[in-house]
Records
---
Amino acid sequence: MRLRTFIADTMADAVVQVREAMGNGAIIVSSLEGENGGVEVTAALDIRAAQGGAVADIDASLEEILRTHLNANAPTTSNETAEPAHPSERADDTATNPQVFSGYSFDEDTLASALEDQGVPSVLAAAILADAEEADTDDALIALSRALETRFTFDALSVAPRHPILAVGLPGSGKTVTIAKLAARAIVEGVLAEIISTDGERTGALAQAQAYGELLQLNVSHAETVDAMGLLLDQRADRAAIEAADTREACFIDTAAANPFSPESFKILKRQIDAARLLAAAEPVLVLAAGADPRGMAETTQAFSKLGVTRMIITQVDIARRVGGVLAAAEVSGLAFAQISTTPYLARGVVAATPQRLAQMILGNPRIQSNSSQDVSENAI
């Protein structure tokens, strides 16, 4: 069963969106009236039964999309000057430290099995396998890490970004808690931090942001409109102009959830992003929850990339069974991996996304360890 939510001005408009996106076989399972007008409709489609072979058609469609985007020469540019990572994010990367080993040897069938278990689309898995073979190493972790470094871009956010960071994403992706985690690591490093909440749609959004502010002992401001946000950013710029040149201050902006399949929703977010860029050179960063179906994640990241998003933070990895959708999304959209969130807690809440960490997530499958001819302890990886 495939579920999708649509937001429209009227029920008739919502039905049109459902039919265009999911076909005539979709059924509406719920509808809600929005607080500010409009309707929110959830539709379902039995992808196993629709037209007899819909599952294969969906998978084939994603394979075609990936074929058009596969490019071994992934961009490696960074948006800002590299800064020391937060202590909880410091980890040796196998690409630069060949002494980090997995404990079991590289085997094409074993790695292929790991990628399959993680739900990586076959076309992308084949490309990753080819890159791993070219790494010319006998260690599985090193081979996969180098393959991922070749294919994807890794560009972590610094502890104190020079410009404000706007967290954007789908409903339920964890934007607010991610903002709090980024602020927490900045505070631990002695960086002044503030949070601006612009989410006036979700019930309790401001209260949640303020609760995090009280916990972290930092200022949380609320801006219901683009003009109000602009005023806060202007005040921040004025304050920075009179402070010491070596003072580091980070600003994180929590935005309302956006539906990339609703033109009106995206139009509002685009206005906010454009204003923040104009006033403070702010950068929008996608907060993307792991675990969704690969095609849906690919479509989502493509949509947000059109708003100028270049980096993403992967959340809910601790509850996601597979990360194949994350890889497919990165390949199709070209977005760089910034951070990964593996826990709901603020302490050690986010870690820098590196090829090694992503490889560890892929090879952490018990099936792979059982196939290894060597006895590997939990700490070996």
---
Amino acid sequence: MRLSYSTLDVFTDRRFGGNPLAVVHGAGGLTDAQMQAIAREFNLSETVFVLPAENPAHSARLRIFTPVKELAFAGHPTVGTAALLAENKFGPGRDADALIVLEEGIGTLRVGVRLKTDQPPFAEFDAPKVPVEAGTLPPVDVLAAGLGLIPSEIGFENHKPVCYAVGNAFAFVPIASREAIARARVNGSHWAPAFSQQGLVGAYLYTRQCEHTTSSFHVRMFAPDAGVPEDPATGSAAVCFAGVIARFDRLPHGTHRRTIEQGFEMQRPSLVSLVLHIDGHALEGVRIGGHSVRVSEGTIEV
């Protein structure tokens, strides 16, 4: 069986930045084992398999795999695949607005895509659910050991380590400085008691000290248990991060936009657009978006 595929860089407006994504087209005839094997072969954070939608009014059904497991939902595959399908529908280099409706394990996602002749497509979608707190984390000294840091480098202002989830659960660890977050790493046997044993996808580290003045947070995300030593841009974690921001920054009623920078330590700079809708003092909705750039196309033998 020969299938076509595309690769894109997501959450960036230029090639060789952002988070790489492989999209395999016409994947309805593949078994679960074949999809997992192909994802291992691409060895990217995620590989998407495009299947016919169960509802004919929708654009496609997606299955999303890391090199070691299937995910019910992920942000950069949603953004990148929607942008690709919109370009395939309208043609590259055209001005158009498209609505791409994707069926994923977590539910149906409506993705708005803006196509412009002078820039890569921008895709944005409302999160399928509002993030919720998801368990507790070990003490700070255990977390610090898992990241190769010292306890005093964990936390800033009123921000403390917490877990939040939207389908996937992440540990959110505030880091006191940009210098400390640059030194963080998956620290051997200390990682498991800090993060693996909590059943989390990974650890999302963040600080307010940023590379760009237009960014609100500088982040890194480690997910070795999902086959991703470090991720250049993590949309599903950014959705969950909205819960952290709303909790600790106590945002007032209204709509708030934040730009998150990630992947700089990997030389894959990424910018994630995050929009929070606050009703009263409660987080009522989250929107995430970013640009995507086509990189390659080809065929794969299965």
